[in-house]
Design brief:
By secondary structure, the chain is an alpha+beta fold. Helix content is 31%, strand content 22%. The protein has 16 helices and 24 strands. An eight-stranded mixed beta sheet has the order 5-4-3-6-2-1-7-8. Strands 9-10-13-11-12 form a five-stranded mixed beta sheet, with helices on both faces. The relative contact order is 0.08. About 13% of the residues have low confidence.
Length: 619
Amino acid sequence: MSDIIQLLPDSVANQIAAGEVVQRPASAVKELLENAIDANAKEISLIIKNAGKTLIQVIDNGKGMSMTDARMAFERHATSKIKSADDLFSLKTMGFRGEALASIAAISQVELKSKQEDQDLGTHIIIEGSEVNSQEPCSTAVGSSLSIKNLFFNVPARRNFLKGNPVETKHIIEEFYRVAMVHPEIAFKMYSESNELFNLQKGSFRQRIVSMFGDKYNQRLVPVEEVTDIVSISGFVGKPEFAKKTRGEQYFFVNNRFIKSPYLNHAIQHAFDELITKDQHPSYFLKLEIDPSRIDINIHPTKTEIKFEDERSIYAIIRTSVKQALGKYNIAPSLDFEQETSFNASHVAPDRVRIPTIEVNPNFNPFETTQKPPRPSTGEHFDFKKEKIDTNWQALYSQQDFENESKYNVINNELVTNTIASNWDESAIQHNHKMVQLHQRYIITQIKSGAVIIDQARAHERILYERFIKALNEKKHTSQRLLFPETVEFSPDDFALMHGLIDEINLLGFEINEFGKNTFVVNAVPFELTDNNLTDLLEKLLDQFKLNSDDLKMGKLESLARSLAHNTAIKRGKTLHEEEMQNLIDELFACESPNTLPNGKPIVITYSIDELDKRFQRL
């Protein structure tokens, strides 16, 4: 029987390795940025086109490579970072495996230009699918410029599994965050489709966070500092009132390398006990400095997981240091001596402060049925012109008008007929019975067979959800134009996500258009949302959309409808008048599914007379 085991060709082996190292364009971006940092670059530029599918280019002013090193860099297991196995336990560089460039070159068309400072000419290499097409001297700047074109061009199955451009761009921005944030001593730029997304200047760690996420974050950060024999911790945590429903800005860096650690994340969450609810997640930007011999970073292909020698002690130190920082924040605001003066809010000049004045009408008598005209005042006040009031205002409305109007309930400027769902025949609400609001959360009323309890917040959410779904399906919704359009600014990753959802969001009744860098202008909103804060609303809409995106069965339109309904429904704690409760119930039971939310949570609980009788008999 002949031998059947054979060595794979290098091109095939590299493609297999690429499956682990390069999962999407963002993976290639990470490897190239880390190589630029290891080259001691002080300025790094990232350029992408078509969400990295067509082009990923990283330009740096690092030390560059010789002609031989430029060619060797694309061989498997070729690296300048380690020479023996012992070096794995004293690593201080970002890359070390020597697989990244070889894997990337196996699934793309690569062009490299690199030059060292003491050389007159640099090197120009073109590689396609692991095959070197050309290598020749060229004139170029000191440093390296590496372009990856047509990623996965020879692996079409992998390319088909990539998401849309907004999603892939968001992943690239997230990798850019993870690398650029922890290196504030390096200037970074990022361009997408020739548009500048970031221009990060050198500065402190706090300044880098603020320049990436916006000036509003300067007031949200609480400094954390702790030095021990095991680990040194520095960085910031977000104030409890700015915690989010999604795991957003959560960054752990160990020796300047981004890591993921659910165990250490739990330490942060534990430190925020009793400050935030269980479904909220705090923001944190923490740098851990630890002896490289006490960690193992060679346990995952993407190097985002680390094994600690004494994980329990690190957990306790992180939890304690964050608790102490939050305690100091609650006692007195912390001072930041690294902060630039440009971050401070301008103070109001003393001469512009006015002492409030109170005007009292001395002729007012609460026991009189008619009020006397106020006595003329000698002080300064606005002079309102007297206008004649039509005393026959009752004639403006005829009896016929009131009879016509009583046939409908008006909610949110829409006419809603009082129809009841066909599946609620037996237990239809009896309108001649009063309704009671319990703890500003539930509505209790009588039905033919007993009593029903309705969650007011979930009821309104179901009503809005079906209304938005109908608007999306029919591609029409009633809008209210804003008298003064509002601008809303997002972080670059949220801007990319919002840009991909803008058409569907506008179908809900918004009129939102792109307006400059990371900014949208809102010209109109759905009738139901005229009283909402648009910035908070759209930020919560995106957060909820990210939360729903984990559900693979949920489409984009359904996720948007759910997100908007959840964030705009009335909340628990809102007092409702009897007419409002009646209108809410009427609209709820006109829905197709009045009993549950789309996620299956109950809206209505019914107690029959028999159930109540049995319960009292047991007492």
